[in-house]
Amino acid sequence: MDHPKRPSDPDHNAAAVVPGFGTACVKNRHIDDKAIHPHREAIYPTSAFTFPDSAEAMRLFEDRNAGYIYGRWNNPTAEAAARAIADLETLGTGLEATARLFGSGMAAISAALMGLLKPGQAVLTQHQLYGGTDELLRQLLAPWGIKRVQVDLNRMDELDQALSNHPEIAVVYAETPSNPMLYCADLQALSAWSRSANLPLIVDNTFATPWLQQPLALGADLVVHSTTKFLNGHGSALGGAVVSTRRDLMDGPIFQQLKLMGASPSPFDAWLLLSGLKTLELRMERHCANAHQVAAFLQGHKAVEKVFYIGLPEHPYHAVAARQMRDFGALMSIELNGGMAAAIRLMDRVRICTLATTLGTPDTLIQHPASMTHLPVPREERLAAGITDGLVRIAVGIENARDIIADLDQALEEQGLSLG
Ligand SMILES: Cc1ncc(COP(=O)(O)O)c(C=O)c1O
Asked: In this predicted structure, what is the pLDDT of residue 327?
């Protein structure tokens, strides 16, 4: 319905020179960005990009890596964050990598696996993986005809046996350190084996970040990340990344997965990631230093049966981690003497630590894998991987270590099981 005419409205004869009010509202008002020199990277919240003329549009559609067309395919803010991650994953290695940003870590992992595997093929992986990755393999990829074969990736005899039993294996997938048991795959040995078998190796580097470990330099073909965790570092945005030195994979199947499965990141979230990345080194130094102190405290605690932390020499993967990581990260799991009841009491009594199922945030987080992150993993498999009912995962934050320790102590003390 037309609104009543106002005195300021142009009459229809003037329409050619004075646009209507609605047209004036809609008009884009760009400020020449060559005249703007912002200190920080810009956010481009736009779903599409315009072309100066049809010839340029046609050129861009011919070479999709040459510019910006549509937000699901690429966005300058996402590209800036992806470039930062590619730089950090290769810094000092002499390698050149590219990266693509996704809407979450699971989107990046799905893109890597679905981009490299076809129905009838199989992925060779470890026994214990992040619950979401495990569920993806069992519940989503298996019905599409993509099998998983699980072995100890550090045992060459198991790798050889798996390949001779399953010639359909087309990809090797490692998560190191793993969530939550901190299984570590020896990446140099595994990548040498994968190369000799002509299989691409994908590594989930979420727990380590490129500050602690650079899988591409150790021979991996693709690195995947949940940037939701330490890379963003503040728990403020979901995100994922795939990084590789292999342009054929990045411009081919990985780009196609992003473009057609459509799990593209929001430019705002990419910007939050860029912000977080700037303090990655400082945060990781503090996360790791705190984790060493928390692990030492928990190890001496009566209420704690066992501490799983790769910084402790008795952890089965301490030596592997020490070889390929700069430090040992911020994640640990503890087995409490009182089993599940003790785990629940601890989670309910912490005051500084927070009960939440993510990791890599400034605050220390605590959660119960058996009933939370790893609930979809079948019980027998979960127990075989060491994820018992009494296991609690702690993602050590960047508070002052003494406060984290005092909080855990008072929470354990409530159970009448404290040091004293
Ligand atoms: C090791 C690891 N990889 C991938 C993911 C999935 O990441 P997102 O939650 O960003 O999808 C997680 C989440 O906890 C994780 O711990």
From this structure: 98
Among 207, 202, 183, smallest CA distance to 385 is for 183
Tell me which of 9, 64, 70, 72 is the catalytic residue: 72
Q: Ligand 1 centroid to 28 CA: how many Å?
A: 38
Active site residue 204: yes
What's the confidence (pLDDT) of residue 418?
Answer: 47
Residues in contact with ligand 1 by the CB-under-6-Å rule are 104-106, 109, 130, 132, 175, 179, 204, 206-207, 226, 228, 238, 240
pLDDT for 348-369, tens place per residue?
A: 999 999 999 999 999 999 999 9
Concerning whether 72 is annotated as a catalytic residue, the answer is yes
Output phi, psi for 172, to 5 deg: -110, 135
Q: Is 229 a catalytic residue?
A: yes
Tokens 């952890």 correspond to 315
Domains and CATH numbers, the chain: 72-277 (3.40.640.10), 280-413 (3.90.1150.10)
Confirm if 224 and 240 have CB atoms less than 8 A apart.
Answer: yes
Helices (H), 20-170: 21-26, 54-62, 76-90, 105-116, 131-135, 156-165
